[in-house]
Design brief:
The chain is mainly α and 176 residues long. The chain has one domain. 52% of the residues lie in helices and 0% in strands. The protein has 6 helices and no strands.
């Protein structure tokens, strides 16, 4: 999937705030955190190849023997690590931040499972897994990529719209 698809799908992790509490102005910061977390698993991608998007020019790409793309950083172990580290260090900033970072991060390897290459979800095992049958897998920029981008964009738009409606209702009741 492209970087923009990973960002919008990751940003939709902010919906957890709407399900478990009232949405306030901090939700927009959480939306950005979810988008960033959706990009983070590609920190191991190298800058080679125009089709691969990468974070910080593949910061961990220099460790080719240790970090292979769609390896550790795309695994369930990495998702759990992100949650535990963010729970330990960041929950004081916002109670939902660890969950949003973990869900945004997890969205990346999940939607990569729709690509043709596959993902090493069970790192350190070498097998790559896909989430759909071979017939329906698409390359980067393919049909699934476009579909996830549109759905993610609509999800963000609905979240912002619901925030605006709730804000206007609460502002109207305060003014009365």
């Amino acid at each position: 999937m492209t970087w923009r698809t990973h960002a919008v799908v990751g940003a939709n992790a902010v919906w957890i705030t709407a399900f478990f509490s009232s949405v306030d102005a901090t939700a927009f910061g959480l939306l950005v955190a979810g988008a960033f977390a959706g990009l983070l698993p590609d920190i191991d991608a190298s800058a080679r190849g125009a089709k691969i998007h990468y974070v910080a020019e593949g910061t961990f790409g220099m460790f080719k023997g240790v970090f292979q793309h769609r390896g550790f950083f795309h695994s369930l172990l990495a998702v759990a690590t992100v949650f535990l580290l963010s729970f330990w260090f960041l929950r004081a900033y916002h109670p939902f931040l660890p969950a949003i970072l973990a869900l945004g991060y997890a969205s990346h390897p999940i939607i990569d499972g729709f690509n043709t290459v596959g993902v090493r979800y069970l790192f350190p095992k070498r097998e790559r897994y896909n989430l759909i049958p071979k017939l329906f897998r698409t390359p980067v920029h393919g049909f699934a990529d476009q579909l996830f981008f549109i759905a993610g964009s609509l999800g963000i738009a609905l979240f912002v719209l619901s925030y605006a409606v709730n804000f206007s209702f609460s502002f109207g009741t305060i003014a009365l």
